[in-house]
Predict the 3D structure of the following.
Amino acid sequence: LNRDAKARMRTYTKKVLQSVEQGNADEAQAQLKDAISNIAATARKGVIHKNQAARRIKRLNAKVKAIAVAS
């Protein structure tokens, strides 16, 4: 179960990063919302530490904001 949760979290993260690489700000923003929800749920279940979840969310958010400002 923990492996599944981590794999799902990585999948959501990759989707956001792919949108960022393509420069698609709107799509990245929508996927970021899903990714944040999934990362927070993974932390709530105790699969990852809450600080790790916060760090992952912060880094994703920074990348999405950077392309939003650029476009």
User: Anything to note?
Assistant: DSSP finds three helices and no strands in the chain.
